[in-house]
């Protein structure tokens, strides 16, 4: 069976790798892969990515416009490669701005299209559901409320659970983490400024300003796999601010609190039971457009799933170090505030159910292809 799998950002690369591993476990050498993704997917399938996520991830309306030539080139490259490879099925993972265009192209050329992790059409531009219904053969959703959303549009989807539950369940905390990184005896605060250049460039400078406000804690940056230490050094300056790569879960589990860029990491942090404050910044014009068109009350997955403010969200002008410091202070020193968040995390885990998303998606893919 020939699979063409596309993930356009770091979180999708993780989920894509888990799915590839599951398909290979079930099919062995019969499963062949062509990928657009990152390091994890490359490792999972033993193939180089035809296009790497580091060259694809642009976030925000203005940011997309500024990189429109690069995006157009990437689309042309993938379309040509898709036709040359002619897979049995195209598996798209999140990343809707790019992947829906590829889905439409594939459908036009009689290639089956399976979509894993629904585009967030419930947040804005719900009219895209009609497009999805036309060009996607099967949609696998990871958020509980998405099933009812699509039902309103007379569209049947498969709820497979959330793959982050798999990732967290498979992780085993390393008791040597602090010793290995020279952090023993220190209380930690984790800083997760995101995995895209835009996020890091806007959020990390505010995070760096927090260092001197919490002298009793050591702040540590979770480095994104698509950047090196030198990239972060440009923002850190002379501050005592270690950057640790490929150990985000270990860092979180050894931290008392975290400052987290809005995205998948907010849900991971909650599943690992770490109190957090969520931050988000983008181009001011992108934010202004977003505030006019986005229809949901929250930006973090934790709050969206629970439909209440479990974690504090600081957006744009509010995502400055003073407001972040105020919330961090509550998380560290106000026991009632901290316990309330941890209690909500427990309810969140109950709502999300049990691990097994990657296995379930692999089973459904085989079943639908067999038909």
CATH topology of the largest domain: Rossmann fold
Q: How many whole angstroms does the radius of gyration measure?
A: 20 Å
Task: Compute the number of helices.
Answer: 18
- Number of domain units: 2
Outline type? globular
CATH class of the largest domain equals Alpha Beta
Number of strands: 13
- Portion in beta strands: 15-25%
Uncertain segments of ≥5 residues (pLDDT<50)? none
Please, what is the average pLDDT?
Answer: 92
- Give me the CATH superfamily of the largest domain: Glycogen Phosphorylase B
Structure description:
The protein is an alpha/beta fold. It folds into 2 domains: about 1-160 and about 355-370, Rossmann fold, CATH 3.40.50.2000; about 170-350, Rossmann fold, CATH 3.40.50.2000. The protein has helices at about 10-25, 40-45, 60-65, 70-85, 95-110, 130-135, 145-150, 165-170, 175-180, 195-210, 230-235, 250-255, 265-270, 285-295, 300-305, 320-335, 335-350, 355-370, and strands at about 1-5, 30-35, 50, 90-95, 110-115, 140, 160, 185-190, 215-225, 245, 255-260, 275-280, 310-315. The strands form 2 sheets. It has a 7-stranded parallel β-sheet, sandwiched between helices. The chain has a 6-stranded parallel β-sheet with strand order 10-9-8-11-12-13, with helices on both faces. Helix 1 (about 10-25) packs parallel to helix 2 (about 40-45), helix 1 (about 10-25) crosses helix 18 (about 355-370) and helix 4 (about 70-85) packs parallel to helix 5. The longest helix has 18 residues, at about 10-25. The radius of gyration is 20 Å and the shape is globular. The relative contact order is 0.12. The mean pLDDT is about 90.
